[in-house]
Design goal:
Strand content: 5-15%
Distance between the termini: 45 Å
Largest sheet: 9 strands, mixed
Helix content: 40-55%
Structural class: alpha/beta
Shape: globular
Number of strands: 9
Length: 466
């Protein structure tokens, strides 16, 4: 039986490799087509347009209205025979956080903290882009431009502790750090038209050219949607992107070699996995069965936001406790291992974070009225994917050129883990792959020091050809 399985595996792999070679040639042609499309559609940077310095205001009227709404919250009872957080955000812990939010949380002080790094807003292609721009150690001889990108349901300030660590621990490097908010998120609003990662990539590239000149080169660190945008930008502008460092690599669902090897993985794991990946049970974590279970257990929000974001948006826009539960459930389930840290825990593991940090995320979405526009990004993106494919522009499956260095920080408690072998099939320039045992989806927010070390190690490897 084992001998038969081995022979079948070898034959399937040989056929798949022939197919992969054909697809690689086709991919090169598609890459050239996309680069030409990007050149033809590049956003012209208007230097006469001035970015406006932006300061977040403490709106006492809106803050009092939020507290009033919190005081009127109607709660429901928990089930005695269901462990906390097994059905979603625990109602008893919701009561505790609502009481803290309405009576102890100091939003005014948090606004001061949010304003501790310089912020700006600029209109690019009729879209408002809010961004942080901060220069660390300006007298250092070595200068690096870097774009830090988050996703849903994150916030730009999730990088503040990482920026602080970079400044204090890498004094020999001047980092020109830009942290934009995705259109539709927080202060990159209002947004009254559809928007997707390709448009965002074009606008963020235009922002970097606006700040640093047409010939500027820059690195990108991306998390969640930021990883997808970071993947798209070097497809469009491979000559400008010095390298990308991501926490959520997306492999192509149309890659026949990957799909075949995923089926073989549980039977011959040593063929595809390193010793470290075997130690962390990647053969079961990345199996078809595991991925299907994840889609069933974890992706209800995804289906809603990719199909009917406005429907759920009505409830979250008007109910602060609904907003809190919907957002913070993700900070629990995407950060910790469910069986040992979440299920049955009164706080779902959230006591790992400071309450003030979590509630600042929630309050930002509330005060900017941006939860619905942030969720629409899912529907917009999948509609755009289908439209681009009709034009034979497959941004969402195309490989990233080998000329663009790629680093991956694989956090074991993230939604998915992907082995090196499978990532390499799409990110051809993959040169760094680090497994983080205690990491989750919100990498810089949860582990700012470790994330910065991974990022700077990657940049150093690229810059000095280590």
């Amino acid at each position: 039986m084992i001998r038969k399985l081995f022979i079948i595996s070898i034959n399937v792999l040989v056929l798949a490799l022939f197919w992969a070679n054909y697809k690689e040639q086709q991919s090169n042609s598609e890459s050239e087509k996309i680069e030409q499309w990007a050149k033809n559609n590049q956003i012209k940077v208007d230097k006469s347009t001035k970015a406006q310095k932006f300061t977040i205001d403490f709106d006492e009227k809106e803050w009092n209205l939020l507290k009033q709404k919190l005081s009127l919250t109607r709660f429901f009872t928990s089930l005695k025979d269901v462990p906390s957080f097994d059905f979603g955000f625990d109602p008893d812990y919701a009561r505790e956080l609502v009481e803290y939010w309405g009576n102890k949380f100091d939003w005014k002080s948090q606004v001061e903290y949010l304003n501790s790094y310089p912020q700006f807003r600029i209109s690019i292609n009729d879209t408002i882009i809010h961004y942080v721009h901060y220069t660390t150690n300006p007298t250092a001889a070595k200068r690096i431009n870097i774009l830090l990108l988050d996703g849903w349901p994150g916030a730009f300030f999730g990088f503040y502790k990482a920026i602080d660590f970079m400044e204090k621990n890498y004094k020999d490097i001047c980092f020109e750090i830009v942290v934009p908010s995705i259109p539709g998120y927080h202060f990159s609003t209002p947004l009254n038209k559809k928007h997707n990662p390709v448009e965002t990539s074009m606008q963020f590239d235009a922002l970097m050219r606006y700040l640093f000149g047409e010939l500027a080169h820059y690195y990108i660190h991306g998390e969640d949607w930021g990883s997808i945008i970071a993947t798209t930008m070097p497809q469009l502008y491979p000559s400008r992107v010095s390298g990308i460092h991501i926490t959520m690599p997306i492999t192509s669902e149309s890659n026949i070699l990957n799909n075949i090897c995923s089926l073989l993985l549980p039977y011959v794991p040593s063929l595809f996995l390193s010793d470290q990946e075997l130690e962390h049970e990647f053969s079961s974590r990345y199996s078809i069965k595991s991925k299907l279970w994840k889609f069933w257990d974890e992706f209800g929000y995804f289906h809603l936001q990719a199909t009917r974001p406005d429907t759920v948006g009505h409830g979250l826009t008007d109910s602060p406790v609904g907003l809190l539960a919907y957002i913070l459930e993700k900070y629990s389930s995407w950060t910790f291992e469910r069986l040992n840290k979440i299920s049955g825990a009164k706080d779902g593991g959230l006591d790992f974070f400071k309450k003030d940090d979590l509630l600042t995320v929630c309050t930002l979405y509330w005060m900017t009225n941006s939860i619905t526009s942030s969720m629409r990004y899912y529907a917009n993106s999948f509609n755009a994917m289908l439209e681009f494919r009709k034009q034979n522009l497959d941004f969402f499956s195309l490989s990233v050129s080998q000329t663009v260095p790629v680093g991956v920080q694989m956090n074991l408690n993230d939604i998915f883990v992907t082995p090196f072998w499978f990532i390499k099939s799409r990110y051809l320039g993959l040169i760094q792959y680090k497994i983080v045992e205690q990491g989750g989806h919100f990498a810089a927010f949860q582990n700012p020091e470790l994330t910065v070390k991974c990022l700077v190690d990657f940049i150093t490897q690229v810059e000095y050809k280590i």
